[in-house]
Amino acid sequence: MKIKIKLIRSCINRPKNQKKTLVALGLKKINQVVTHESSPQILGMINVVSHLVNIEK
């Protein structure tokens, strides 16, 4: 199952682990959308930055 992840808030003044998680997801700019396959690893990464992104299934 594919999920779309959209960055809606900036990563400025966020901890390093959150910034690195966004880069690992492929998100660099606000309003950028990436598509990933739903897996436990991706869902865990989304959980770390859930306050910065929107998720569509």
Structure description:
This protein has 57 residues and is α+β, with helices and mostly antiparallel strands. The protein has a single domain (2-56), classed as 2-Layer Sandwich (Ribosomal Protein L30, Chain: A), CATH 3.30.1390. It contains 2 helices and 3 strands. It has helices at residues 16-25, 40-48, and strands at residues 2-7, 33-37, 53-56. A 3-stranded antiparallel β-sheet has the order 2-1-3, with no helix packed on it. Helix 1 (16-25) crosses helix 2. The radius of gyration is 10 Å and the shape is globular. The mean pLDDT is 97.
Write the layout of secondary structure elements.
Elements: E1 2-7, H1 16-25, E2 33-37, H2 40-48, E3 53-56
Antiparallel strand pairs: 1-2, 1-3
Summarize the structure.
By secondary structure, the chain is α+β, with helices and mostly antiparallel strands. 33% of the residues lie in helices and 26% in strands. The chain is built from 2 helices and 3 strands.
- Characterize the overall form: globular
Q: Count structural domains.
A: 1
Q: Tell me the series of helices and strands, N- to C-terminal.
A: EHEHE
Output the structural class: alpha+beta
End-to-end separation? 8 Å
Could you state the CATH homologous superfamily? Ribosomal protein L30/L7
Total beta strand runs: 3
Tags for this entry?
single chain; alpha+beta; Ribosomal Protein L30, Chain: A; three-stranded antiparallel beta sheet; 33% helix; 26% strand; globular
